[in-house]
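Q: Could you fold this chain for me?
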Amino acid sequence: MTVTVDVWFDFICPYSLITRHVLAKALHGRDAVPAFHPFEVNPNCVEEAGEYPRGVWENSVRPLGAERGVHLAGPPGTPLRRARMALLGYQYAREHGAGARYTDLVFSAYFHHWQDISDPTVLADLAVEAGLDRAGFRAAIMSARYARAHQQSLAHARGPAQVTMVPVIVAGQRRIDGVPTAEELARAVEEALAASAVPAVPAVPPVPPVPAGAGAGVWDMTTLAPPGVALPAPVPKPLPSARARLHGT
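A: Sure. Below is the predicted structure, expressed as structure tokens.
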């Protein structure tokens, strides 16, 4: 039975980018598929979302990226751009079968080419490269329909899924807050595959969500990386709510 690995991400989160690379390694050759759920960390910000916390890039993002095999030269620049429109575009891209390609292109544009992903023209160019219709995409990111879809995703994440930061990964009954290693994530997937082969057991009471900043690479727009001090390695967490509630975003 194929296992679905749920992943919550934000386009302005460098840890989300690193996690995509880790996920590709962990799932290679396994009967598991990723399901990506957009999560806007700061949905109430104005068009410019501030700056990355001081010290976080040199002391956490770049070292963690290098450790996981992802090269990041530096932050995209100041001010940090808002991801709302890019996330609306993801809703459209996913609906038209180009979610994965569009996501890779947006992450690359922002973190490797330092493009402004709050600019509709930049996003439309990326959408065309992903194989989407330019006019249809531009209409979608300006429409009430996709704005509602985005808000529904946020409501589900903050409610039933108990997500307050990114990245968050759920595989079977294991939850990881932050960036795992490929080996840790592979073990979680293997556990989920093994569990799917046996009869289901009664659900256990919900477990409180992990406090902010508990794992390596948890992005909540406020977590600081003390100079010279690496954040602790991510620890797999028990699923905080019934598995069936995680789908449908």
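A (continued): The first helix runs from residue 14 to 27.
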